[in-house]
Design a protein that fits this description.
Strand content: 15-25%
Strand order of the largest sheet: 2-7-6-1-5-3-4
Distance between the termini: 55 Å
Structural class: alpha+beta
Largest sheet: 7 strands, mixed
Oligomer: single chain
Number of strands: 21
């Protein structure tokens, strides 16, 4: 890949993603913000252009497709409420811009992993601007999140503008990706960026391209009639530009050629690199969002949609004309025997897509621990996989994971009530960890971060009972001290990928398990007990 030379000539590039479903008229609010007059000559005024882009179903899926230029399942993202929502690590859009000399910034709700290598800084962003209004939707993405700690209120708009101003004043260009939750966040972000872009042009004559992508739901949503729900979401996609007219016109042609979020990735990259968008003959979509305990191969064909040559293949078996929305026209089924060549071409496109998809879906997504001694890796229930606590049949988990953590505080408040504890089912989950070095590991487990504000500590208090910590085949259990807010143990562990799970009993009725929502694990030294035979 060849990058455009001359840092001073590179534009600021901003991508704002509003992944929440919004009313179709909501886009007018953003347009109104950007349509305010600026006292510039006509050749550098704000300009806008629209195109239709189909977004992968789900906020995390759309973010992954935009970051990596691949269909979301090829990135390994099954759905928003699944542990596999963390994309397989590869070179991201932010990585490419950083290599091209850009300061890369992420703002808003990041919910694809709290700890390296899944946090946004591990994905190519040099700086992160937190949007407190958005962080509730990605609860616990930082152990020090003010929304949990109850610290002093922060005005996200002021912080955003100060952070942007600092970045915009740098000599290097800025690539910024913002994830907004709701139109209000998107409008605030747009207002701040418009001011900064205006200043950037006045001070550095640096052009700014801003792409706003908002997922929309039609008032008569057609997805209710589809066999698997949404294969993709329509969006209001708008390009705003400040700078020279000729550059805007040239880029608009590329912008209008993209039809999906992963193709928009290539178009954005083409601003600074010598890449061209190749229109595929067939595009493969998938409704995804299947249950996290399902085997991916079970969903190879069910839920899939191949679109191309004005036709749509559903589940690999049913052929229909494709409408302008890249959806099957279910009212006009076609006889596959009359379209055998087309059907074979579509199946081949699906097979090639699945080859890459399957590899990503079976990736273990482990957290690396033990690279340095006394360097804790923080894990949260946001990253739970299926529990390893099994029923007597040793086939089915006895505890189900609580994957959505938005209501964590409500759950903990409920535990203060006897009726709630009597009815609440067993919930726990495991983490996949890659032990980089054999040694002695310290594991601290709790219901809330150990350094929370005092007024939340009562929600983290543990009742009498027992604590269990399993790392690989090594299970440690101990009695809980009533009133404790965390449990710390040390255990030996061998190098390699293994499972870690921590849970408590005595917090719910009938000895049901309640998983530790927060865990810190760190290497503290060499193994205490080495049972391997020493060479003579």
């Amino acid at each position: 890949m060849t990058f455009v030379s001359g840092a001073d000539s590179k534009p600021h590039v901003i991508l704002i993603v509003n992944s929440d479903i919004t009313e179709i008229d909501g886009r007018l609010a953003v347009d109104k913000v950007f349509s305010k007059n600026i006292d510039f000559s006509s050749d550098v005024a704000w300009r806008k252009s629209r195109c239709d882009v189909r977004l992968s179903p789900g906020g995390n899926a759309a973010l992954a497709a935009l970051l990596y230029g691949k269909q979301s399942l090829v990135c390994g993202v099954v759905g928003d409420n699944d542990w596999r929502r963390k994309p397989v690590r590869s070179t991201s859009l932010a990585d490419h811009f950083a290599l091209a000399g850009y300061t890369t910034v992420f703002s808003g709700a990041w919910s694809m992993g709290v700890s390296p290598p899944y946090d946004c800084k591990s994905r190519g962003f040099k700086a992160e601007i937190e949007s407190r209004g958005s962080s509730q939707s990605a609860l616990c993405r930082h152990l020090e999140d003010d929304w949990i700690m109850g610290s002093k209120a922060m005005q996200s708009q002021v912080i955003l503008e100060k952070s942007l101003k600092k970045s915009w004043m740098l000599s290097s260009p800025v690539f910024m990706m913002a994830h907004c939750r709701g139109m209000k966040d998107s409008v605030k972000m747009s207002e701040a960026i418009k001011v900064m872009a205006e200043n950037a042009w006045k001070m550095h004559k640096r052009e700014t391209y801003c792409v706003i992508v908002s997922a929309l739901v039609k008032k008569s949503d057609e997805s209710c009639n589809l066999p698997h729900g949404n294969y993709h979401n329509p969006s209001s996609t708008t390009l705003y530009h400040i700078g020279l007219q000729k550059n805007f016109t040239e880029y608009c042609d590329r912008f209008h050629d993209c039809a999906t979020d992963w193709e928009l990735n290539t178009v954005l990259l083409s601003l600074v690199a010598d890449v061209k968008l190749k229109k595929p003959e067939f595009r493969v979509f998938h409704a995804a969002n299947w249950a996290d305990d399902n085997v991916p191969d079970k969903h190879r064909y069910p839920g899939s949609l191949v679109v191309g040559k004005e036709h749509a293949l559903v589940d690999g078996l049913e052929l229909y004309p494709a409408n302008k929305e890249m959806l099957p026209n279910l009212s006009k089924p076609l006889d596959i025997t009359q379209h055998q060549k087309l059907h074979a071409e579509m199946l081949l496109a699906h097979t090639n897509w699945w080859r890459s998809t399957r590899k990503a879906l079976y990736n273990p997504r482990s957290f690396s621990v033990g690279k340095k001694d006394k360097h804790p890796v923080r894990l949260t229930a946001m990253d739970w996989r299926l529990s390893k606590i099994m029923h007597a049949d040793n086939k089915h988990p006895s505890s189900q994971p609580v994957i959505e953590q938005q209501k964590l505080l409500d759950l903990l408040r409920g535990l203060q009530q006897n009726d709630f504890r009597q009815q609440y089912p067993a919930h726990s989950g495991s983490w996949s960890v890659n032990i980089l070095r054999p040694g002695r590991y310290q594991i601290k487990a709790s219901l809330l971060p150990t350094n929370i504000d005092d007024r939340w500590k009562k929600l983290a208090v543990l009742r009498g009972g027992r604590a269990f910590i399993r790392i690989g085949q090594n299970l440690v259990q101990l009695q809980l001290v009533k009133g404790a807010t965390s449990v710390t143990v040390q255990a030996d562990a061998d190098a390699g990928i293994t499972d870690l799970e921590c849970w408590f009993t005595g917090q719910l009725a009938v000895e049901r398990e309640l998983g530790a929502f927060f865990v810190e694990i760190q290497r503290v030294g060499d193994k205490k007990f080495n049972l391997k035979a020493k060479p003579e």
